């Protein structure tokens, strides 16, 4: 409860939490919809496994790049590009040509791992800089509980949606949620972070 109050009062943490909730909602719906969609496309189930491997490889590369580019790219830019990259990734996945090519699926999942992993490093840095040490555990617990709490709920929602309609519609809903997760940093204080040093001088929030 104390962590939630602190997150709600801090514009940086509040935006991070909302963005993370929307992104994880979209991610769970996407995973639910992908296998039945690949089945409709007459693709082997192994295609999804390779796509997840592309996702994991890109996440590793993105985490490595985040540290090396920290002094070259504004944190606010990374915090926008991370979710934006996710929306682009699903647009690439949905653009799969009718010639049975899986390259768009692999490329989409690679983008889905790359941008958000850099976003994760950036938002964790912001979170630690704007949160007093005495509150950090409670703030982290609140955000992690929200993230992992939304995943099963969104998976159920995605399953109901895909079962009642079509897998492609489920993926389209995921795309919409990724777009909304991009709107959050674009319209909040996150976009204006020029460097991490500035965050050490922001006012403390109750």
**Radius of gyration, whole Å:** 18 Å
Helix content: over 70%
Q: How many DSSP-defined strands?
A: 0
- Number of alpha- plus pi-helical segments: 8
> Structural class of the helix and strand makeup?
mainly alpha
Question: End-to-end span in angstroms?
Answer: 13 Å
What amount of the residues lies in strands? under 5%
Seen as an oligomer or otherwise, the chain set is single chain
Shape, principal axes of CA atoms = globular
Order of helices and strands: HHHHHHHH
Identify low-pLDDT runs.
none
Mean pLDDT: 93
Main sheet attributes: strand count, strand direction, barrel closure: none
Features:
206 residues; mainly alpha; 0% strand; globular
Structural commentary:
Helix 1 packs across helix 6 and helix 3 (46-68) runs parallel beside helix 5. This protein starts with a helix and ends in a 7-residue tail after the last helix. The protein is an all-alpha fold. It has helices at 2-9, 11-40, 46-68, 75-94, 103-130, 133-164, 167-186, 196-199. It is 80% helix and 0% strand. The chain contains 8 helices and no strands.
Task: Please write out the topology.
Layout: H1 2-9, H2 11-40, H3 46-68, H4 75-94, H5 103-130, H6 133-164, H7 167-186, H8 196-199
Give a quick summary of the entry.
Helix content is 80%, strand content 0%. It has 206 residues and is an all-alpha fold.
